Amino acid sequence: VSATRARIGGDELDNTFWAELRDQRLAFFNAGAGDEAEAPLWRLSLPHQAAVLDLPGVDETHMLHDWAGAQRWLCSELDAETIRRACQAVGGHATCHGPRVAEVEPFTPLPEVLMKYHRNLKAQLDPKGIFNPGRLYAAF
To answer: CA-CA distance, 58 to 88, in Å (whole number)?
Structure first.
């Protein structure tokens, strides 16, 4: 870590920062970015080498990077389809975490072939549909 830091620079952060990031207690999560406290919070899972996403009106103040850029948190009013399309264009996906997660499917919709497998697996493991109905997808 020291050798890499010497080579690329950066500030050392204490363990409190990392615990607050892990537990989503940083100001970014509590207040939203850019006074957008009511904007949905999105978790973007991307290849670590993915460049800046093509998201209209979004700059880095709306985003928090983690895992060397492979996980990014976004606070934005953009519609789900725009965010998901930008993530899929670079080989990733997006999950809505809130605060208005009930207004949108939280997970990226699956292609119909994969959805069929998910439905069949759910039917085998939970034939009465009592475990987390609608948690992953409203269809099951």
So the answer is: 17
Q: Is residue 20 part of a domain?
A: no
Write the DSSP symbol of residue 114.
H
Q: Range of 137's domain?
A: 110-140
Tokens of 67: 């895992």
Alpha-carbon span 138 to 117, nearest angstrom = 15
pTM of the model as a whole: 0.74
Residue (of 20, 109, 1) closest to 66 by Cα position: 20
Specify which residues 72 forms β-bridges with: 44, 65
What's the total number of domains in the chain?
A: 2
Residues in the chain: 140
> E strand or H helix at 5, and its extent?
helix 2-8
pLDDT tens digits, residue range 15-56? 999 999 999 889 888 754 445 457 888 999 999 888 888 899
Q: Looking at 2-136, which runs of residues are DSSP E strands?
A: 41-45, 63-66, 71-75, 93-98
User: Which pLDDT belongs to residue 20?
Assistant: 93
| Other beta carbons within 10 Å of 21 | 16
